[in-house]
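Pinned message: reference record for Outer membrane protein assembly factor
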Amino acid sequence: MPAHETQMSGGFAPGRGLPRALLFALVCSTVLAGEMRPAAAFEIFGIKLWGSSKDEDADIVDPLRYSVTIDAPDADKDLVKKLENASALKNDEDHPVSGSLGLMAKARSDREQLVAALYADARYEGVVTITIAGKSIDELPPDAEFKGPQPIPVVVSVAPGAKFTLGNIRLKGDAAGLASADFGLIAGGDAGSGAVLKAEALIVRALKEEGRPLAKVTDREIVAEHSSSTLDVTLTVAAGPVAGYGDTTVEGTEKVDRNFTEYMTGLKRGQQYSPQEIDDARDRLLGLEVFNSVTIKEGDRLDANGNIPIDVQVSERKPRFFGLGGTFSNTEGLGLEGYWGHRNLFGQAEKLRIDGSISGIGSNSISALNYNAGVMFEKPGVLGPTSKFFTGIKTVFEHPDAYDHFSVKGDVGVSYDLDKKQRVSAEFDLDYSRITDAFGKHSYLIASVPLQYVYDSRDNKLNPTRGFRFLAYAEPSYDILNGATFLKLKGEGYTYQSLDTASRFVLAERATLGSIVGTGLQNVPADRRFYSGGGGSVRGYSYQGIGPKDINGQPIGGLSFFETSVEMRIGITDTIGIVPFVDAGTVSTKSFPDFSNVKVGAGVGLRYITPFGPLRIDAAVPLNRDPGDPRFGIYAGIGQAF
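Predicted structure (C-alpha cells):
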C-alpha cells in the first residue's frame, strides 16, 4: 500500500487510534442518552432559585476538582463550538470527579469523543493531546496521583488538520444499481463520518422499502487519501429476500392487554414487510399514551414460511395522571384549569379524563367568573388500529362581554387516521343552552353533526419549525326548540418555515376563515357565532373585542370572520427566544367577511423552551384601535401562540 494512503476493511482508519474513535462516532451518530439526577437544586431562566451544585456532588467519593482549557488555534468558531459540545471534561467542569483515577478515565474518554467530533467534521488528520497538570495522559502511569492546589489544570490541545471531501464512491453487491448521489455521497461533497453513516442508513432503508427486511451493509471500505485530502468510500450491501410479517410477539405488558397491543401494531401476518409500517406501528403504540417506551425489533432471520418475526418490547406508564395549568392576560384576567385521568381504564388503553377550569379572575366580578367542567372517554381501535371512539359530556357557565351562557352538551363520535398526516372525524352532538345576549334571553336545543378533516405535516406539535397544518370543518345544525337550520363552515391553515439549518429563525404564519349560512344572526346561538380578539386570536385587543357591537358597545358576534398572523420566531439561545408578530382579524354580520374593517395588532413575545412546550409571554398594541379598545395587551401561557 502506498505510504500516502491508510486503509482498513470495514472501518475508517486514516490515523492512529481510529478504530475505537470510529466505533464511538457510530454510537454517537445513532444513540442519544440522558441521565436523570435528583432535583437537589431548582433553576429556571438560568437563575437558581434554591439549592446548589454542591448538593449534587455530595455523594462523590474523594472529589477532585479540575479546570479545562481547550486550545485549538487553527479551528474556526463552528469547529471550536463542536469540540466544546463534545468534551465531557468541558461540559462537566463544574462537577468534581472521583479522585485522580476518575480524572484520568474522563480525560481518556474525552479524547475519543473529540476525535469522533473531528471525524464528524471530516477532519481525518486531526490530533488531540490532553495534559493533566502539565503531563500528557499517555505518559502518566495508571496510578498517577495529582497533588497540589485544586482545581487541577487540564489542557486539551487540538490540531484539526485539513478538511476532507469525498473522492471515489462505489456501491457494490445488491446496491450496485443505485446512484450514490441519491444518498448524499457525491464526489467533492461532505466526507464527515456522520454523512457516510447517514448514507449507509438511507441505502439500507431504500432496499428495505422494497420489502427486504434483512438488507444490510456487509462490507465498508474507507480509504483516506492524505495527499489530496479526499475520502474514498466503497460500500457492499446485501438486500436479502422479499418477505412478509411473521408472528408478532409482545413483551413488557402488565396491565395493558397483550393481544390488544399486538392488534394495535396493525402488522398482519403474511403482509409484505415495510419499514414505514414498522415506524407507524411504533408511533401508534406510543400514541396510546399507556407506554413509556416502545421498541420494535425485527428478527435476524426469516421463519420457516419465509416471513420476518416481529418482537415488540414495551414499558408501561402509570395509568393515572393529573395536571394543573394557567393563563394570564391583562385584558382577560387569570385562568386556572385542572384535570385528572386514567389512561388504561379497562386494560385496552381506554382513557377517562375529568377536567374543569375557571377564568376571568381579576377581570370579572365574582358572580361573573367563567366555569366549565367535563368528562371524556376514548377507546382506540374500534374500527381498526388507526381509529378511535370518543364520547363525553361538558357543562359551561360563562360570562364574556358578548353574552351570558349556560349549557350542557353531550357528544359521541369516531375519528380515523387515513395515514400519519391525515385524520377525519364525525360525531353527533346534542347541546342544551340558555343564553342572554343583545337579542334577549333564549333557550336552544341544538342537534349537530360536526365533520372534520385535518392534514398535519409539522415536525413537532409543541414547537414546530417545519411543516403545514390544514383543517376543514363543517357542522350542519338544527335547533329543535326554535326550528332554525344552519351550516357552520371553517378552514384553518398554518405553515412553518425554517430559514436556516439550525432552525434559529422560523417564520410561522396562519390564516383562518369561517362562515355560517342558512339563517340570520339572531337565530344562531351566541356561543356558536364567530368572534375575534384576544390572546389566541388578534393580540392587543380584548377578548371578543373585534367586530360588530350593540348600542352599549358589547360584541354581538358575526356570521363570518377572518384572521391571520405572522410570527418570526428567533432563537437567541437553545432555550430562550424572541418573537415579533403581527395579527389581523375581522368579523362580519354577513356570511362572508368584511375586509374593509380589518383590525391589526403587533407586538413582541418572549419564549422559554421546556420539555413540555414553550413558556410564552406576549405584549401587543392595537394599531387601529377604536374607542373602548385597550391600549395594549399582555398574555402568558404554555405553548406557542399557534
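Pinned by admin. Summary line: Residues 99-120 form the longest helix (22 residues).
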